[in-house]
Amino acid sequence: MLGSHWFQRPEQDTTSQEDRTAVAPATPETRPDRVEGTVLRFGPGVTAALSHRSETPLAAAVPTPTRHPRGGLRRHALPALVLLLVIAFLVWQRSGPGFAADQAAVTTGNTTVECDGTADIAGVITTNGRPGTLSYRWVRSDGTTSAVLREVMPGGQKKARVHLLWTFRGEGRYRAQAELRVLSPSRHTATIHFVYDCS
To answer: What is the C-alpha separation between 195 and 44, in angstroms, rounded?
Structure first.
C-alpha cells in the first residue's frame, strides 16, 4: 500500500513576487580581466570549459628559445683567436725586458783631415731591439759639447747610426779627439782620435 504522503499536494508558495526577486538577483555579465593573454571570468555562470581554459599554464605563452646553428660559433672562432694572439703579444711586450743600450762605437773614414777639411765621424749605438728613445751627446777636444740629442728606436731595430761633422780651418797641425757619450737608457762612451794636418 502506498502511504498517504504520496498523495499530498505541494504546499502553496506564499512568497511574494518582491521577495523572490530579492532572493534570486539578476546576474549581469562581469567584464573579464586580461593576464598574460589569458581571459579570466568571474561570477556565477562560469562554465567548466571556461574555468579549465583560464587555468592554462602561463608558460605556454612564453616563446621557446631558438637554437643557433653551430656554424655561428665557427664563424666567430677565428676573430677570437686573432684577438687572443694580439693580447698575448702585447702582454709579452710589456712584461719582457725594457729598452737598453748595449754598447757604443765610433769610426771615421779618414784618420787625417787635410786643409779646410771636414771630419765625418760615425757613431753606432747597439740596443736590445726593444722600442725606446736614446739620448746622447758629442764632446770634442776643442772644448765644444753638443746639446743632448735623441734618437727614437722602433721595435726590432738594434742599431742607431749617428754622425758628427767637424770642420777645420787654417794652417797647422792638430790632434783631435771626438767622444760619443750615451746618456740613456744606460751610459756608454766611445772615443776616436784623428789628425788635422795643414802644414
So the answer is: 123
